[in-house]
Amino acid sequence: MKQKRSLFDRTLIITTIVCLLPLVFSVMVYQDLPDQVAIHFNAAGDPDGYASKAFAAFILPLLLTLLNVVLQVALKSDPKRDPSERIYHISRWIIAPLNLFLCPLTLLIALGKPIQVERVVPLAVSILFLIIGNYLPKCKLNYTIGFKLPWTLASEYNWKKTHRFAGWLWTGVSIVCILGMLVGLSAVPLFLVGIPIIAIAPVLYSFILYRTEQATDTV
């Protein structure tokens, strides 16, 4: 009889601690924050969404910490997970550094620091996509990571081909976006073109593979 694995492990504990670290910074700067803090920005970097300083300083990091715990449990509960895969560990570490980066960044902007959020955040997102794209081709069939479509889950061949294609695509688009922003291009047109490509093209590719497999099986 198999021993039941605990959902709570070292990675969950460490990532949760990392998620809570921004609270230390929040306590340090709380008195200097304005009553209303911008928590959302438009494509030009102008604030278009506000919250109380208590929400921005404390509730937002706690919500992301809770999201991290939910993600950890979901990944650990996947019966087809492969703990030896790099992308599995990257997925478990996605939220913690984002929380550590975004929450203090939000407070620094509220304190009047000259941060170009319209460039910094898209650049960070592009780097994240580049890292994920590098490991997508190595992603084995599972229920929580990757392009989980009816035909990819039903066919290991389709899964492998789709994620190999997606990996190259995500890597290429991410590099184009990073280079574009580094030479001064706006992130808006780059993302308006790039995001639909990396989201839709692998789905269409996998569906074409599925239809081709079906046609072959009926011959």
UniProtKB/TrEMBL annotation:
This is DUF1648 domain-containing protein. It comes from the Bacteria. The chain crosses the membrane at residues 12-30, 50-71, 92-111, 117-136, 165-184, 190-210. PANTHER family: IMMUNITY PROTEIN SDPI. GO terms for biological process: response to toxic substance. Residues 17-64 form the DUF1648 domain. The lineage of its organism: Bacteria, Pseudomonadati, Spirochaetota, Spirochaetia, Spirochaetales. InterPro entries: DUF1648 (IPR012867), SdpI (IPR026272), SdpI/YhfL (IPR025962). Keywords: Membrane, Transmembrane, Transmembrane helix.
